[in-house]
Every structure is written in C-alpha cells, then in structure tokens.
Amino acid sequence: MKLINNGVLQKGMSISRIDNEVAFQIYKFYNYMTLINNTDLDSDDGSEVTSPLKAENVYLITGKFSTTQDGSINVSITTNVQLLIDKEDIPIIKPTVHLLGKTLGYAELTESGYTLQIQVKPYLSKDQFTPFTVNLTHPPNGRFKNALTKARKNSTVHTTGVFFFAKDQLYCEILEFQFVSAKIESDNSIVVPWKSKSDSRNEGSSKSVIEQRISLIQQNSTTQPSLSMTPTKNKHKTNMTKITDISRSLLLQNQQSDEIHDSEISITNEENEERINENIEENEKRNENIRNEERNENIKKKNNTPKISNSTRGRKKQKLNNVYELT
Fold first, then answer.
1. Considering only CA atoms, which of 76, 91, 86, 88 is closest in space to residue 29?
2. H/E element, 72
3. Of 35, 105, 185, 289, which sits with the fewest C-beta atoms within 10 Å of its C-beta?
C-alpha cells in the first residue's frame, strides 16, 4: 500500500475463472481508499470502496479498465463487495463491459456472425489512456442485425457486452447496442395528446361557473397591476405590508369596536334611567290622584251628613232640665 494525498492506494493482482477448463483471466487492480478520521484500514466493516482487498477472498468488483500487451487487464476499482464463497467454488464468469467508441468501418458478416470494429479511448490516469480496438460480435440473426448493418465509419456507438480475448485480440459479444447522436435537437415537437380532444369538448360545451371564475381571475391577474396597500415613497422599492402595521390596524379595530360597545352601553343606560324616572313620575301622579279622590270623597261624606238645628238643640236642653227638676 502507498499513501497518496488523504488516502491509500492498494496495488495487487487477481484472477477470475472464465471456462470449465483451467483458463483464467489476470487482472492488475488499483484500489484507492480515502482516509476519513484516521480510519483503520485493517478493520472490515463491510462497506464498499473503503475496505482493502484481502488475499484468498472472493470479490465482485466494478471499475474502469484498460488492456495490456501481455493479455492482462488493468482495473481501477470503484466498488468492491466480498462474496461469502470459497475460492474453490468460484463461478465461471467473464467480465461485462460498457464501451463507448467510434466505428472503424462497416460491419462484416462471416459464418460466426457479424463483426464490427470500434476504437475505445479509456482514461485511467495520465499514464493509462492509450486507445485500443475491440471487435464487436453478434449472431447473424440477432436482434441488433439491422443496427449493425446501418453502422457507418466514424459512427459513435455505445455497447454493453461480454469481454474476452481470442488470438491476442479483444472481443465483445454484444448484449446491448445503440448509436449516440452528437446533435442537439432544439425543436420542441411535443404534441399534447389531450389538447385536440379538449378543444373539441370546449367548442361543444360551455364552461362551468367555477371554470369561468378561474379564467376570469387568470385574465385579471395578467392584465391588471397589483394594488399596493401602503403608499409608496420610492418607486424602486417593493411595497410590503409590515407585521407592525397589521397589528396596529387590528388594535385600532379592537379599540373602535370597544368604543362603539361602550357608547351603546351608555346609551342603553341613559334610556333605562329615563324610563325609570318616567315610571316614578307616573306612579307619583297616580298616588296623588288617588289621594285627591279620597279627600273629595271624605268631603262629600261630610257634606251629606244632616245638621242639627238650634231649635232642636233648645228642646233637648229643656227636656234635660225637666228631667233634672223631676229628680
């Protein structure tokens, strides 16, 4: 391992099983691990990329690659996952690659199928960016037959396939294939599928009340300028209603409502007092009338009682005198 900047670069060699015989593929890998808070490289936390590759273990790796003249593959590892299987039970698997390059000619048809050469320019580092040629292969009746026959020289293509060597040449059995266009289409020819149907419906049916209101609001919002709640002193400044202004207006409203309520209460109190005074006056008048009536009745009774005359009074006195004399 070698310390580089804030990380550690691990270099090594590994092999993979590529057929049922003893054939294998050699890989020269470069595993760069970033040091975070002085992480212990010997600890195996199961995370990707940061963990170093250990001998005698089986890993599934992804990364960028380039080829060498001795038939090995240089790989700059981006992710690695340890597989919990024994090295004796390692499965047969060829590397799967993604290639982006330009065609060197037209596709050729042979007994084994179509062959199309492309040139790929990898970039692993400043020392590993040499372009190399890959032969794309495909069955004669495969699903990419038409695409391969339409390929022209210097066409940019992207392909995914199984990577292998044959007679010191690089091959890739196509799994996916497509052309890459360098043109940028600025014409927006998107057709909304429901527009024509909605237009025909709008012609035959009238809008609902809600739709009419929505359209009216939309028209007003686009044609009429927005009204400001406060006078503007500077035209360049944006009119904004402050929170203090809102609170002041609310307090004024509350004070006005309280004053109105107090005035109403005072008015009702004055009215009640006037009514009470009127009732008292009416009662006093009634009582006075009753007293006057009683006085008048008493006077009438006195006037109606018979008066004793003086002659009768003299007679009574004579009788009394006579009585005294007899005694």
1. 76
2. none
3. 185
Provide CB contacts within 8 A for 18, sequence distance 6+: 24, 25, 92, 93, 94, 164
Cα dihedral 249, 254, 260, 263 in deg (nearest 10)? -130
Selected residue with higher pLDDT from 51 and 57: 57
Does 217 reside within a domain? Answer: no
Q: Residue 130 is part of which domain span? A: 96-179
Q: Give residue-wise pLDDT tens across range 277-309.
A: 777 888 788 888 888 888 888 887 777 655 555
Q: Which of 14, 12, 57 is nearest to 33 (CA)?
A: 12
Question: What are the DSSP E strand ranges found in 152-240?
Answer: 156-166, 169-179
54: tokens are 């250990």
Domain boundary among 116, 151, 179: 179
Q: Which pTM does this prediction carry?
A: 0.52
Looking at the structure, tell me whether residues 13 and 71 fall in a common domain.
Answer: yes
Determine the 3-state secondary structure of 181 from DSSP: coil
Nearest CA-CA partner of 120 in 82, 187, 202, 64: 64
